[in-house]
Amino acid sequence: MTSPTPRVRIQTVTIPVADQDRALAFYRDVLGFEVRADTAYGDARWLSVAPEGSAVDFTLHPPFPGQAAPGWQQGIVLHTDDIAGVVAALGAAGVAVTGPEQVGWGVQAQFADPDGNGFVLLQQG
What we know:
Elements: E1 12-16, H1 20-30, E2 34-41, E3 44-50, E4 57-61, E5 76-79, H2 83-92, E6 97-103, E7 106-112, E8 118-124
Parallel strand pairs: 1-4, 5-8
Antiparallel strand pairs: 2-3, 3-4, 6-7, 7-8
């Protein structure tokens, strides 16, 4: 008999960004995320943000040596109960949004951060 696999959970997703201050302004001021950490260590900076109440945070970090350029992160799904309101707010902030469109699992739209990291906005139902 094998022992069960220990449980794991998602805590942090790294979003590769070119400029942490520009990224912070987008995630905090446009998306309304809260700042979870903003700490300097040596020449580096640990900057994480998250939607209020989320168990998962996003670390906004320049690519590490040998990693792809900013903008490679694609397809992270953000849930909302008011997709029309979020799409309107993004548009008012100058963010290009594709959709919303009805799909089999709800209504979704897509947008990208200033570095080209892509997100899916989903309202299930």
